Amino acid sequence: MATKKSGIDQDTIRDLAKILTETDLTEIEVEQDDLRIRVSRAGVHTVAQAHSVPNLNATAAAETPQPSPASEIPARTSKNTIKSPMVGTSYLAPAPGAKPFIEVGQMVSEGQTIMIIEAMKTMNQIPAPRAGKVAEILVSDGQPVEYGEVLIVFE
Fold it and tell me: Chain-centre distance of CA 118, in angstroms?
């Protein structure tokens, strides 16, 4: 018995678009049986550069940020943290060996690119949601990150 294919479910597409907006993701893809739906935001800025993961053997100890004394660490409230909007790999510079986007103690302006997260072979620039001074960078270059993970703390 052959089943008749119904049209694409517009409600599903609307729901996926709503998820994009609510989670600040740039793209979402769902596959069910033989139907695959991908929804992505228009106007997302991407960087078309490939990054290689640095060799972590000798340089890892030198590049690992040292924890600050507890008295110097600002409280990690949602107001002063930047969380990962997606699962992917974090890159702190636009290219291997290049100067990092930000450094601890640096003032950043709202909208300034603070890092790149590679997700599904797409380089997604992560902008600062507000202006502030960088107190901590909690990820390293080439480190995998999870959705909602705290990446950066502002003072």
Answer: 7
Cross-strand pairs, 83: 150
Q: Could you tell me which of 42, 41, 32, 43 has the C-alpha nearest to residue 6?
A: 32
**H helical segments located in 2-83:** 10-23, 60-63
For the record, the structure tokens of 20 come out as 């994009």
What type of residue sits at position 21? T
Domains and CATH numbers, the chain: 10-40 (no CATH), 67-154 (2.40.50.100)
Q: What sign results for the dihedral spanned by CA atoms 98, 104, 106, 110? A: positive
Q: What is the pTM of this model?
A: 0.51
Q: Kindly state the DSSP code that residue 27 receives in the 8-state scheme.
A: E
Q: How many CA atoms lie within 13 A of 44 on its CB side?
A: 20
Kindly give the residue spans of alpha helices, DSSP state H, lying in 34-124: 60-63
- DSSP, collapsed to helix, strand or coil, labels residue 58 as coil
pLDDT in tens, 34-82: 777 777 766 544 444 444 444 444 444 444 455 444 444 445 556 788 9
**Which of 104, 135, 103, 101 has its CA nearest to residue 116?**
101
